Amino acid sequence: MSFGFEVIHKDIAGRVGKLKVGEKVIRTPALLPVINPHLQLVTPREMADLGVEALITNAYIFYRSAQYREQALAEGLHKLLDFDGVIMTDSGSFQLSVYGDVEVTNKDTLSFQKAIGSEIIVPLDIPTSPAADYETAKHELAVTLERLDEAREFMGEDCQLAAPVQGGIYTDLREEAGAAVSERGFTFCPIGAVVPLMESYRYQDLVRVVMAAKKGLSPAACIHLFGAGHPAMFALAVAMGCDLFDSAAYALYAKEGRYMTVHGSFKIGELAELPCACSVCRSHTADELNKAPDRERLLALHNLYVTLAEISRIRQAIQDGTLWELVDERCRGHPRLLSGYRELLTYADELEQSDRVSKRRFFYRGSESCLRTEVGRYHQMVSRFTLGAEVLVSFDGTEIEGYDDCLLFRPPFGPLPQGLSETFPVGQHEVPDWDDEMVLRGCEGIAALQESHPDSAITVLCTREWEPLVRAALPDVGVILNDI
């Protein structure tokens, strides 16, 4: 398949990269705005002027359209839409999931997408409902894989085919699907049928589904998260390793009078101020925007500005090594997003394998920060410390004679040799006053040190304030008090 995906920067599982589609290049992470030819509040030309490098439209809509079908076949999508960037087409599988059977076969949609000049073609997969039972999900996944095989044989090896990863809410099927499309050589892999999860705020399930699919997929695959349209959840999705998103939300929300922000959406009639610096918001008051005759178009423009700005913010966070902080900030805007964030942290060991080693800083933002990849990696690293027979871990830096080594204690990481005090993550970390969660996590670092150095006797020097917690967390470690 003629895709090329080059990763330039990484943070957690997020990637800043370049996706080559034929002779064109898309910077990732990227947003592909959804274009409906019958509802264009913002034109593709205007999107290109805003920096949009790729968009997605539904081939089934063109296939059924008396107004646009013949024009699309005669002129091609690029001329019809007046857009020079990459155009991806969906097959009609969404309509299949909503309305039941559609009068188009897999080969029909493949041929039509190619005929209208689509540059990323999606076979007619089956988007399995989250409500489907296991046997149904397994059967529908098998049909989707059969259609992928049919598409590759029908279209040829050089066609730029997307390979949707299905499997419903069943993590074993999602992992199986990811492995299956990678084994078939597909490198552009949308994770499908997740819109119902996002619409019902089931972000824990979303994380489980995506992480399962990622486990099966090749690390070199470019991952598209179908239907992920609200900027509030982009950082979470990128942290999982998603590279592309498609969104009709900018227009759909506008039609409902909804004003997007990275912290959620608001009814425009309920706002007294517009907390945005885009051209729409700087040229209108909230009341003027609400009463404007072209309100829907103006809201769509604003929503698109906000969405694109968040993509840029995420790219910068990846390059800075501050994606964890951005995920934490965004996910505290909604309790269900926060539950998704906490679910993601349960995969820290897997994420650590792709996370970068050095970053700008470690900013402690609460108990969730104790579970970040950097902390787990540090606990693995303590096994490499060279220690003598008697080792002191000092909470306040006080040294006592008679010990071969005196280590500092820096929660949530744990024991710290003086020589590493200026290195990441402990040398570039910012924490408030210590709390129980961070000290307990730091004690896990001491436990890891004890386990990896069985010939060293470890003693902890702490104040009376922390003595009960330390003794409970480290029952086999000596504890002495420093009440000075």
UniProtKB/TrEMBL annotation:
Q: Which gene encodes it?
A: tgtA
Q: Which SUPFAM superfamilies match?
A: Pre-PUA domain, tRNA-guanine transglycosylase
Q: Which PANTHER family match?
A: QUEUINE TRNA-RIBOSYLTRANSFERASE (PTHR46499)
Q: Which reaction does it catalyse?
A: guanosine(15) in tRNA + 7-cyano-7-carbaguanine = 7-cyano-7-carbaguanosine(15) in tRNA + guanine
Q: What is this protein called?
A: tRNA-guanine(15) transglycosylase
EC class name: transferase
Instruction: Identify the keywords attached in UniProt to this record, alphabetized.
Output: Glycosyltransferase, Metal-binding, Transferase, tRNA processing, Zinc
Q: Which cofactor does it need?
A: Zn(2+)
Family membership noted in the UniProt record: Belongs to the archaeosine tRNA-ribosyltransferase family.
Active site located where? 90 (nucleophile)
Q: Where is the tRNA-guanine(15) transglycosylase-like domain?
A: 14-335
Name the lineage.
Archaea, Methanobacteriati, Methanobacteriota, Stenosarchaea group, Methanomicrobia
